[in-house]
Amino acid sequence: MAVDLLQRIGLSKYEAEAYLALLVDGPFTGYELGKRSAVPLSKSYETLERLARRGLAVVQPGDPPKYAAERADRLVARTRAEQSALMAALDTALADLQRADPAAEFWVVRGRAQVLARAEALLDEARSQVVLGQSGPDAVLGAALDRASGRGCQITTRSLDGADRRAASTEMLALLVDDREALVGTLTPADHAQAVTSANPALLAALRGLAALVQAHQPREAATLPADSPRQLDWLAWEDRKQRRLWPAASGGGRVA
């Protein structure tokens, strides 16, 4: 685990192995490292030198020299500072390049993990009000809801269980954030889950009445959509039909005409 995490902050596998060996059992000479770690003896000296150049090891001169690991808390603090500076620079660079958000358009997010990630991102951006309807486990967005509540957002939740008896086994999700952006879709089956996200006025209006109109086990027909919603959302039904045709082919169970 620690080796993988060190690699994620930029160390090579041998560097990560060497650093951990020094941290736990060091200091070592290059020969000792090669004998007492997963780093090959032929790579041990150059690996220790790379750690020293990166400030992750200190050297005791001698013949042969010995190497000791930099303290772990210093490594973590330095890495955190570097990553924070990198993210700030990236944020600025991307903000300068980003085009205006096409708010009135519809975009599809595919896969359960991606749908939930987008929902969590929307909740983390909420500043005043959240309306959430969902079926299935309530805990999937619990942490993000707690964070929004902690910022003072008004949270309204409704159960969608039983809202559509024909899809009783399907987990559904409907989210409206600050009356400015919405996400509607399914969470099951995980590989084929998909949701629509948009700031389109028709979609926002459709979800605006969610808190008042959707009750547990209430028939789906009780919630009404704006008059122009079907026309604007027709292509979503087409997208769903297209995906259903593709599923058998993706799993090797059929061909798409």
Walkthrough of the structure:
The chain has 257 residues and is α+β, with helices and mostly antiparallel strands. It has helices at 2-8, 13-25, 30-36, 41-53, 72-97, 112-125, 142-150, 201-208, 210-213, 229-250; strands at residues 57-60, 66-69, 107-110, 129-134, 154-159, 172-177, 181-186, 194-198. A six-stranded mixed sheet has the order 3-8-7-6-4-5, with helices on both faces. Strands 1-2 form a two-stranded antiparallel sheet. It is elongated. It starts with a helix and ends in a 7-residue tail after the last helix. 25% of the residues are buried.
Shape: elongated
The H-and-E topology, N to C, reads as HHHHEEHEHEHEEEEHHH
Instruction: Quote the distance from N terminus to C terminus.
Output: 46 Å
Determine Rg (CA atoms, Å). 27 Å
Summed over residues and divided by their number, the pLDDT gives a mean of 80
Strand order of the largest sheet: 3-8-7-6-4-5
Are there runs of 5+ residues with pLDDT below 50, and where? 214-233, 253-257
Individual helix count: 10
Give the fraction of residues assigned to helices.
Answer: 40-55%
Structural class: alpha+beta
Approximate strand percentage: 15-25%
Largest sheet: 6 strands, mixed
Q: Find the count of extended strands (DSSP E, 2+ residues).
A: 8
